[in-house]
Amino acid sequence: MVSKDSEKQLNIFDIPDSFIPEDMRIYYPSWDNIPPKEQTVIKFKETPLLSKGGILSLCAEPGVGKSSIMEAFISSHLNQNSDSLSVSILLNSERNKILFCDTERSQWESHKAWSKLMKRAGISQNSNDHKCLVFANLKALSINERKTFVNDFANQNKDLAIIVFDGGADFMNNTNDLDESNKFNDWINTFNPNISFMFTVHTNPSDNKPRGHFGSEICRRSQTVLLARRRGEIFEITTNFEHGKNRHGKHESWNYKYCQETDMFVSSSEEYIPIKANTKYKDLADKIWGDKDLMSFSEILKQIGVLMDKSYDSSKSIFFRQFKDKICIKIESDNMWKLI
Q: Do 184 and 62 belong to one domain?
């Protein structure tokens, strides 16, 4: 490896390869090894969300549209006038290629998603604008084959700027295994510091916490952690939740909704309006909360079970179908629930 006592260290920010050479993986700040000015590559309106070389994570429960949101974000790279849910991607000409790794959906579903992305960006078959995006379905590959594919792609494409892992957990056998998670992070740390990463992350069934050790660790390393969630009849993207953050900008929240006419998510200025609660469950909630202002998730489930003579799983199902966002909302700062 290059010694810190060397007269001059080559500037790793100028290397053309997609991986840091082994003899340059220890970085010694000096007057000869100055990084370029920090460059924002993804922003919401004027708020930076991701800088070159950083990580952005999008957390959500199933059914909220994590993959579709990522694809909407990417559409802005193909066409700045697309409805990209108010997010812009800004890449320079030297590195302007995005690799999208889909490991969860079938080939049919991937093609449908890709087609919607092209439609959103207004890209036709005869256009070359789509060539700065490579959409790859890796579901049929083994874990090692998936990593090999990404490595080979990165080595062959010196203009690679962003790798999107739509299902980063599918690059390991056990997302709760500390060793596997650390090895994955060691791997992405070897990429050129000019390459950025985007991850979709599943949340736990009962809260907004990233699932597994991998989810927690990748979010800890992220510059920005977003949450997508349903809020009544609309959906919200926010950094302002208990596990959210934006290291280089302020907290932001914005809305989107499903458009039946276009069969895709679109930007929305509509405000959240709570769905009217079932009177039976509203009365039950009044009994459960009593004179309390806040209650924990476990306390609520316990009381539902006692008052309705239900099992834990049935109580949880009732909570998510009848209580959440209809009768009560989560106060993220306290990790508690409050009646609406």
A: yes
Domain count within the chain: 3
d(CA 80, CA 77): 6
DSSP 161-193: EEEEEETGGGGSS-TT-HHHHHHHHHHHTTB-T
User: How far is CA 117 from each of CA 76, 164, 172, rounded to the nearest angstrom?
Assistant: 10, 14, 28
Beta strands 234-238 and 97-102, pairing class: unpaired
pTM of the model: 0.82
pLDDT digits (tens, 9 = 90+) for 59-98: 998 888 999 999 999 999 999 999 999 999 999 989 999 9
| Containing structural domain, residue 299 | 279-339
**44 and 1 within one domain:** no
* Band (10; pLDDT cuts 50, 70, 90): low
The torsion defined by the Cα of 51, 244, 163 and 174, in degrees rounded to 10, comes to: 140
Tokens representing residue 110 in the block: 């991937």
**How far is the C-alpha of 300 from the C-alpha of 292, rounded, in Å?**
12
Name the β-bridge partners of 275: none
Domain boundary among 238, 268, 298: 268
Strands 328-331 and 245-246: unpaired
- What is the number of other CB atoms lying within 10 angstroms of the CB of residue 325? 17
Query: What does the alpha-carbon distance between residue 289 and residue 277 come to, in Å, rounded to a whole number?
Result: 16
Same domain flag for 200 and 304: no
